[in-house]
Write a structure and sequence with these properties.
Blueprint: E1 10-15, E2 32-35, E3 40-46, E4 55-60, E5 65-69, E6 71-73, E7 76-77, E8 81-84, E9 89-95, E10 104-109, E11 116-120, E12 132-135, E13 140-146, E14 155-160, E15 165-169, E16 181-183, E17 191-197, E18 206-211, E19 216-220, E20 232-235, E21 240-246, E22 255-260, E23 264-270, E24 276-283, E25 291-294, E26 303-308, E27 314-320, E28 326-334, E29 339-345, E30 354-359, E31 364-368, E32 378-382, E33 388-394, E34 403-408, E35 413-421, E36 424-432, E37 437-443, E38 452-457, E39 462-464, E40 476-477, E41 488-491, E42 500-505, E43 510-514, E44 526-529, E45 534-540, E46 549-554, E47 559-563, E48 575-576, E49 584-590, E50 599-604, E51 614-618, E52 630-633, E53 639-645, E54 654-659, E55 662-667, E56 679-685, E57 687-693, E58 702-707, E59 711-717
Parallel strand pairs: 1-32
Antiparallel strand pairs: 1-59, 2-31, 3-4, 4-5, 5-8, 6-7, 9-10, 10-11, 11-12, 13-14, 14-15, 15-16, 17-18, 18-19, 19-20, 21-22, 22-23, 23-24, 25-26, 26-27, 27-28, 29-30, 30-31, 33-34, 34-35, 35-36, 37-38, 38-39, 39-40, 41-42, 42-43, 43-44, 45-46, 46-47, 47-48, 49-50, 50-51, 51-52, 53-54, 54-55, ...
Amino acid sequence: MDSRRAFFVFVLVCLLAFSAASFAAAPFLTAGAFPVSAAPTYVAVGDFNNDAISDVVSASGCGTSISVLLGKSLNSFQAAVNTTVGTCLQGVAVGDFNKDGKLDVALSDGGPSSHKIDILLGNADGTFQAPTSVTVGADPRGIAAADFNLDGDIDLVTANFADNSFSIVAGNGNGTFKPAVTTSLGAGTGPVAVTVNDFNFDLNPDVVVANNTSSTVSVLLGKGDGTFQTAVSYAAGAGPVSIASGDLNGDLGPEIVVTDSDGTGTLLFDNRSGKFGPIKAFTVPQGGYGLVLVDLNADGKLDMAVTSPGAASQVTIYIGKGDGTFGSGITQYATGGNPRAIAYGDFSGDGVPDLVVTSTDTNMVNLLPNRGNGTFGAAGSYSAHTGPNFVVSADFNKDGKPDIATINSGSQDVTVLLNKAKGVFQSSGNFAVGAVPTGIAAADFNHDGSMDIVVSTATGGGVFMGTGTGSFGAMIPFTNPAGTTGYVTAADVNKDGRPDVIQVSADTNSVLVRLGNGDGTFKTAQAFVTDAGPVWVVVGKFSADANPDLVVVAQTANKVDILLGNGDGTFGAFTNVGYRANTPTSVATADFNKDSKLDIVVTDFATAGNPNGSAGVLLGNGDGTFQVAKRFATVVQNPTSVVVGDFNHDTKIDVLVSSGVVNDALLVGNGDGTLQKPSMVISGENITNLATGDFNADHVIDFVQCNLGQNVNVLLNTQ
């Protein structure tokens, strides 16, 4: 096998219940239909009640009602929750507009007399607060959400049909919005649909509008301040009605796909500078309307699903080949009832995307469950406690094999799983924490040769002393809790040969350092200030003095900080590493370019302008500073955790990123600080944390992950 290519095979070991059936061409089960308010024409997917199960919101076409279907998992929904709003709804977008952790909804409200966006702030139960509105251009149709001015707050864009304009509405971050800025910038006539992406690789969200009257597509490149360059337009088929963007040919540049009312489609190839060409046409059987791009068969290549209304009443699936073309075979699924809008989400809890389609004639939302993922099979099932959300790997019973320990937020304890052989695990018990645990690490804190466990909690946390058999004594709380703590790691930061404890505290915007005494006890915690909202910390020697330093992800501030160590367990004032983050979530350290200087990789959430989360590599200069980051798309949304290692035995460091939505992404390193195109690792949904280890003694790196509220998965590398 060519080690330079991002091709890996893993075997999945499931700890709790997780199974996966395989498929070759994304077949779907029979569609289920769920009643909603009249003439559902627009649809979006999100988690509207914060239960980690995908939900659906539909809007009536030029009507006054939206419906929320709360997912029950296993391909079913609760009865629709209907809300009356607006005068002529013509589009829907979702986002957390007031940063309260609850999804909100924005609706384009157009027609002959209404020119506004309706904002509904979510209550996290499928209902919403009373709507507010913002005036935009005449007859708004398509709507999308993104941070166009890069201030960390979600903004909105609408395509306004009647006056041939588009409107940018800047968010204030509290659920209110500034007055709209409406302009045309030379775009076409009759705009009806809009998509957002970064088409010229400048990290600024760009806008593309489908123009129904002029039969064109207009590209408006963002400047990063909420304004845009003059539009450049390209010919499309007759009467475009829907638009989407994504990387279809593997060059990391997003292509544009448009469906047209004459039964054709148009594909515009991105040349990575914001200009497009060549332009290709394709046929949509029975005519197309709604459109999504998503990897339906888990081969790491985007596929396309298109709805055909009218007599056909079907969804057509095109399987992408990864080179900008689609396979010769297409698959069609009947939905009935004049299908219009289409969206995707994991409604069955199996970690693969399903499709939802609105049918205007039957007032239904149709669910097409995807049958499987085609990449991993279950190798074993084991019991663990409730809500595993963080994991660490270490040898807890001194048999030379790496074991696993998880913290479980639901049962408020630690589960230890001992490696019996070849990646088969057996529980050695659950150990009570007494509060919701928020972080876990392992080290030998009392120098007895047995690994111990440290846990963070809302009251500070404590230590479990290991016996060397896989069993642990009762948790010994820290005597100086110092408030709520989160992610925790263990390292010798004062160079006395004893492991210390380093915790992040988002409540106090600081890093807490507890110096170990070498007997399982610790000195009083010292706090070192960081930027707002620290969520992750790593320890490494980033400067020439060889003292341990700290790198901290400050999520609220959208910053990454470095605190240079003094070698005695204290640290200097934080400085920013110069990484322009978007909800950064985690960081790892390694030498990515083989210059003997430590580098870092940081994960960021997806945005509307970057629908996949990113991994940013910052090469170290060896003096505590870093070069400008190089960002790499991860093919997973909302990355939650990152680990590094040589997964393909080519002596180059690779990157593995977990998704808070579904699956993992593996980015193979080139040894020069760059990463190859990611490949998807099918592994489940709601993944919160990763750890690595050689679990089956074959001398290659495997990994273990937590799927929040569901299971713990071990994936064995068969590279």
